[in-house]
Amino acid sequence: MPGSPSWNERIVVIKLGGSILVNPKAYKRAAIFVRNRQRADPDERLVVVVSAQEGVTNKLERAARKIVREPLAATLDLLWSTGEIRSAAILALELQALGVRAVPLNIHQAGLKLSTSGSEDAHFSGGVQFTPERLCGALAKCRVAIVPGFFAIDRQDTIASLGRGGSDLTAVLLAKGLQACRCELVKDVPGYFSSDPHQNPDARPIPRLTFEQALEFADGGCDLVQRNAIEAAARCGLPLVIRSLVETGPLSRIVSGETSGTWTTAIPSAVEVA
Fold it and tell me: N or C: which terminus of the chain has fewer CB atoms within 10 Å of its end residue's CB?
């Protein structure tokens, strides 16, 4: 596609959710994970999508509502975005401390723009346009680019959220637009489950499932992956990997029917490098 780098088959999109970015030590651990992945396969370019630190989005909303009972959506989105931007900067700093050159981008630089009238429609086909030049330019300079999740810009160039859990959707949209070879959603659980294992001790792990099955579980109350993100991945046939930060631990794959790619049998698992 226009603006894509010649090495786009080596791009991997990795999303780090707020549930694993819980404190400063967690950012360091996430940076080690990214550093190890880069060292395990130096030819890969990594696009790391980050959520705000756990609890920050709710904290910011509470602060806003103490000032005004019903804040304007655009104002609330702008306030919320500071959480994701902070995460991107902190992770970049932690990577730099480890000797990894990483470029943090802001929301306008990421290249996602709503082509619909509102963020609630962003998950529908054609709802988001992607302009790859700035992100691809960052990847051409170094192997790791960090992007704030959960947001795009609208037709008025204003920051707009993509719904709760929207960092999953950000990762899917970027992976699709960059024609990435893999999209990994890193959670605080080792893969996809029949329900949220934090709430249901009887939840069973599912190593491999179809998009249709994942949507059924989502409709049943399992919110491990944002439903809009599953729909968007299914629409373009983008396989998803659901995993934790445990590099040698179990994981799950969400695919289209019986479709499988080479990555489904050999997902890189980084090892600690001294």
Answer: C
Domain total in the chain: 1
Which residues face 147 on adjacent strands?
Answer: 49
Instruction: Kindly report the three-state secondary structure assignment for every residue of 56-93.
Output: HHHHHHHHHHHHCCCCCHHHHHHHHHHHHHHHHHHHHH
Q: What is the pLDDT, as a whole number, of residue 1?
A: 42
103 against 123, higher pLDDT: 103
Does residue 269 fall inside a structural domain? no
Give the chain's length. 274
Distance, in Å, from the CA atom of 189 to the CA atom of 187, rounded to the nearest integer, reads 5
13 is a domain residue? yes
Report the candidate in 98, 92, 106, 119 with the shortest Cα–Cα distance to residue 147. 106
What one-character DSSP code corresponds to residue 157?
A: S
Percent of the chain with pLDDT over 70: 86
Q: Is 261 inside any structural domain?
A: no
Whether 203 is covered by a domain: the verdict is no
pTM: 0.87
List strand residue ranges (DSSP E) for the chain, in order: 11-16, 45-50, 102-104, 112-114, 128-130, 144-148, 151-153, 159-161, 182-186, 192-193, 205-206, 208-210, 240-243, 251-255
Please tell me which residue, 223 or 170, carries the higher pLDDT value.
Answer: 170
Domain residue limits at 34: 8-187
DSSP conformational letter for 109: H
